[in-house]
Every structure is written in structure tokens, then in C-alpha cells.
Amino acid sequence: MNAMSLSLLLAGLLTLAVVMAWLRLALWRHGAPHDRRGSPTRFALLCLLQPVVALLLYVTLLPPRQTTTTGTLVVMTAQADRVALPASLDGQPRVALPEAPAGLDAERVPDLGTALRRRPEVRALYIVGAGLEPRDRDAVDGRALAFSAAPLPRGIVQLSPIAPVATGAGFVASGRVHGIPQATVVLRDPAGQRVDATTVDAQGGFRLDGLSRLSGPAQFRIEVLDAKRAVIDTATVPVWTQPASAPRVWALAGAPNAEWKYLRRWAADAGIPLHLQISLGGGLQLGDAPLPMTADTLRRFDLVLLDARSAAALGDGQRAALVAAVRDGLGVLVRADGALAPGVQRMLGLALTGRDDAEFQLPRPAPDDDAWRARRGAGTADAPVDADAIPAGLSTLTRQALRTTSPDAIPLLRAADGTAVAWWRAEGRGRIGAWTPTDTYTLALTGHADTHAVLWSQALGTLSRTGTEMALSAPDDARVPQRVALCALAGGAQVSAPDGTVTRLQRDPATGAAGCGGFWPRMAGWHQLTLGDATAPFHVRAADDAPQLHAMAVREHTRQLASRAPSSVAASSRTEGARGPAWPWFLGWLFASGLLWWLERRRPAAG
User: Fold this and answer.
1) Is the pLDDT higher at 571 or at 478?
2) Can you tell me the distance from the alpha carbon of 234 to that of 219, in angstroms, rounded to the nearest whole number?
3) Would you say residue 439 has pLDDT above 50?
4) Where do the structural domains in the chain lie, given as residue ranges?
5) What 3-state DSSP class applies to 153?
6) Global model pTM greater than 0.70
7) Domain 161-244 in CATH 3.40.190.170
8) Which CATH architecture has domain 484-540?
9) Residue 38 burial (CB count, 10 A)
């Protein structure tokens, strides 16, 4: 006899019993003397309790089944023991991935793919703990997914990657700290020396400035200190420094003058390819052969240098091509040696005001200024000029007295009193700057060409197009032994490990035009991806480096998977599971039966 037949038979028998009890009560009341019938309330209670007792007996013998979600697999990950599971998941199959803590009531599996191959009926996943590691994310494969996350880790939970920098250039290490109020964040160089320190803001964010001195790989370190100055968390900050190549400069002069003459002489001495076109008016030009301002031409250069007159002479189409090239990485510097036309102001986007000439002094570093010496010649924005040997007869230079109120304007050069005399702003992948000094050539005339060179190398180094690196779609927190996804691969792509081991990469056909392949690093450190003659570095963290940073990355990736899932686990089809406990219903039946017995025994006395 199946369960359906049993439940119907039991329901039929109990219904018949209730009907027979009602008939007995009705016949008894009809045949009893009037003084022995009792009150109508007693009779109503006796009739009402009959079906109640029958119903309670039914659910005692056949308790209701618990509603469960069909095809749901509970996946336990790291820190799963810190998460309470909802009661609706009772009775669902559970698996524990390798990083899950010991002692869980779940089947141990090497990865999520193995668990799903063993249970092909699974249509939904319920992830518990820190989240899915990279090796398990592809196995989700469009299934419904819910994520019950462990509490946020305490320490560094976000750290922005640092792009390759040029020798002597500065870099910014920024990120976020969680769970450490009044935390102090310290940046240390590879030798352990303190470089910069700051206090986190209200959201836990921080920003630290560093300086890259030598070419090649380097590992800085960030330390997080609590209010008692105890180190709570640390993280490696990998920085790749490459020798700076000379920028390719296209200079357009509206008229010949001494400033352009000495700029060209400095470029020749510094080995900087400079294509200089000097307009004489009436269609006549000096210098190099004129070039059309097209996208193809602009791609051949790293920086375009203009003065106020040549910038004003550009047509609307030329300015549009120039701005488009800036967004693609080109640098543009306008020498504001005269009034800037409205069209030039719009191109600059710096809202410059003022016209009269003014004098300013270059900053003089103190002899014991170690911070200045560390930044000397760095080529970074807002760095002091090498002016420690400026002659007494040349204490001032001349500039256009312009100022800007643009919120995104970043000082490129400051005077000795701190006043900004040049600015730049980002535009897409490139930078646009305005330069107000008009007679820097006097430095070279007085025998101080080195000061003139440092001043202009700083400007060009800040604004020029950076060297292009091979695009890698590696995760920000690549680490041993997690999979690293590398894309845009071609035949012969390979990765060289720090110990010289070479691994050839195979493209995954499923990635299509993206041409991605997987790489599983076996050691920490800098690796090199090689495609033909081109190479690109990427850093792999040790498995135990910055664990909170890794935990936050895993958490966010799993949240993204859950947000892209086609449906929630709660929306999956539901069915009846195992029957629930019978004892609560039995207690109810026992109480109702006792009450019915008491009412039956309490017959009214004869009058």
C-alpha cells in the first residue's frame, strides 16, 4: 500500500468515526429526558471536539511533510562555521570544499565541479562562508545561486593594483581598511624604511605616495596599525619599474622665439625626438616638414606641445582629433605665453583666468631636505625643481598670471611661495596641461641648462603618453595556487616563473575572440607573460599574503555570481520532504481527548 492510499484510508476511517459520534450524540440527546440532556453549550462542545480529536489523531499518525527546495546543494566554503543556515535547508545535501573548516557535517569534495558531477539533478546552489575560489566559479554554469556570507574580515580589504611606472617616478598605493577604527596605514620600501603614513578616513580609505628608484621588480609593504600602534594586518605592494623611454614630441610654434630655440637644443641634448614646426605667417614655416593633424599622425607621438598662437590656429576638426587622441593616451601641453582663445580654454578644460605678466621664484630646497633629494629628478607632478644652484642674478622668472578654479586641476609646477604656475588634468587615458612660465630659456642663457632640463623633463615626463603594456586580464589578487586567467593570447604564449620555469599556455576555445587561457602559479613573485617579442609582467602573491584582501576579493566575486544568477534559490521549485515530528500533534490529541472524556463523564444530575 503506497503513502497516498494509506492517508486516504486513514482519513476515511476517521471521518466515518466522526459521523458515527455525531449520530450517537444526536440520538442520545433526542432520547434522554429533558432534565438529563444538559446545556446546549455542552452539546456543541461535544460535537466540535469530535473532528478536532480525529484531525489531531490523523496528523499524529501521519505528520505533515516539511517543504524543501528541490535540487539545492549547500556548499560550505572557508569560514562556513561562522554562518547560521536557515531551517529551510534542513535535509538538503551538503558538501565541503577544501578550504572549509574541519568538523562540518558535510561531504568533503576536491572542488565544486566534482560535487556537481556526482549530483546532476542539482539546479540551485547555496554558498555558505567566504565564497567560491576561482577554480569553482565556472562550475556554477548558470545555476541559481544564493550566498550567505561570513562577516567581513578585519584588515586590508581593498588594495588598488599599481601599473608599471618609470624609473624615478612616483606611484600611489590606495585601498580600504575594515574593522579597525582610527587605523594608521604605513608604506615601507623594500628595505623596510618608512616611506609614507596616513590615517584612514571615515570609510576606511587610505592613499599613500611612494617613489620608484631603481628599474625592475620591487616589493613595498603596507602595515595597518590600530590605535595602540600594534600591527593588525600587512600586505605586499608589488611595483614594477621600467626604464623610461624618451617621449616622441610634436611641437607647433606660432612664432619663433628664444623659448622654442632652447627647448629644441635641450631635446637634442637629451635624445628626445622633437618634430618642431614654426609658423612665420602667410603659410610659411620653419623647422621640420609640416604634418597633418590626423589620428594616424597623432599616434606616432607621445606629446603635442603648443603655444597660445598655434593652439588658437587649430580648426575645430583638428581640436576634435587632438582631444580624441588624448583620450587614447596622448599628452598635450599648451604654453600659455599669451591670451588663450575660448576654443583653447574648452580644449584644456581648466577654466583659466587672468592675463597680466607676473614674476615668480623657483623653489630652493634646503641643503638637508632629504625628502627633496629623494624626489629630485623624479618627473612627478608637483615635484620641486632642481634650483639649488640658481644664480643670484636670476632670482625670478616670468609667467602669465593665470589661475584656475577647476576641481580636477592638478599642479604641475609650483613657485617658491607654493603658487601653482602650471596644471594638468586627466582626459580619458591621456593628460592635458597648461604651462604659464614664458622665459625658462634664461636659465640656459646664464649657464644653468641643468635646471632648465630638469624643469622641462618633469613636465614632459608627467604628461607624455605612457609606454604601452600588454593587456592582461589577470585578477588583482593573483596568488598561489589559484588559477590566473590570461587573455588576448596567441600561438606561442608562455609564462616564465621566478625560478626560470617556462609554461606554455593553451587558449580555451570556449572563450572565443577573447582568447583566454588558464595558468596555475606554483610560486610567488614576478612572472613574465611572453607573446613573440613582447613581454608583460604580473605579480603572484604567496598563499598566506594579505589573507583578508583575498577573502574580500572572493566574497565580492561570489556576490557578483549571485547577482547574475537567472533566479534565486528561493524561487526554485519546491516539494515535500521528510515528515516532521509527531510528538507535538500527539500532545494536542491527548489534551483534546482528555477534554472530550471529561465532558462525556460530566453528565447532569437528575432533577
Assistant:
1) 478
2) 12
3) yes
4) 3-64+581-601, 68-153+551-579, 161-244, 249-463, 484-540
5) coil
6) no
7) no
8) Sandwich (2.60)
9) 15
